[in-house]
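Hi C.,

You asked whether I'd gotten around to modeling the 69-residue construct. I have! Everything is below, sequence then structure, no commentary in between.
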Amino acid sequence: MNSRYKTQFSKCTKGKKIGGVCTKLAHRFDIPVWLTRLITVLMFFKFPMFVVFAYAVAWFAMPDDEYCK
């Protein structure tokens, strides 16, 4: 299966900083990785408990992606 047409959310193991969640979301929605990380940090300052909870859930729920760019 070509990774371009893969629709399942999964963690990206290449280019990750903590869990690979922001990297995979950036690739999934075709936006720069730095922008995804910036949005996550800015949201953390406004909604810290929500961001920590959502990131932790995404980190544990997303399988590893062996086809990541």
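If it helps when you're writing up: The beta strands are 11-12, 64-65.

Thanks,
B.
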